[in-house]
Design goal:
This is Signal peptidase I. This protein is mainly β and 119 residues long. Helix content is 7%, strand content 38%. The strands form 2 sheets. Strands 1-2-8-3-6 form a 5-stranded antiparallel sheet.
Length: 119
């Protein structure tokens, strides 16, 4: 396979990097075009009741969270919102901490930019 394209399945590929499909942490030898410092993309499958117990702290990237299915609550230092309709999304910028909880079985896509080592 050429290294400038890739076809896969998010459910299958997500296990390799805690759900992350693209980012600086993908080995360029194995990941090819998926290895990038420009952004990170995560496929998140969360059963009802699963929550992130801790809050992020001091992240200086921009993030977008997009609901594919389910009901997913996002808690931001700027307020809380619940994504309930397929396609609902939230974008937040640098300096806003977050936590989350899956109120129903949920699938979400997270996009962060840039992809910064050490985060």
């Amino acid at each position: 396979m050429a290294d400038n394209w890739y076809g896969g399945n998010a459910n299958d590929d997500a296990d390799r990097h805690r759900g992350w499909l693209l980012g600086h942490f993908v080995d360029p030898v194995d990941g090819g075009v998926r290895a990038t410092g420009d952004l990170e993309v995560k496929w998140g499958v969360h059963p009802a009741g699963q929550a992130r117990p801790e809050w992020t702290a001091g992240d200086q990237r921009t993030t977008m969270l997009l609901l594919v299915s389910g009901r997913f609550r996002l808690d931001l230092t700027a307020g809380s919102t619940t994504l309930a309709r397929q396609g609902d999304y939230v974008i937040w910028g640098p300096g806003i901490d977050h936590s989350w909880a899956a109120e129903e079985d949920s699938v979400v896509v997270t996009i962060r930019w840039p992809s910064v080592p050490g985060h």
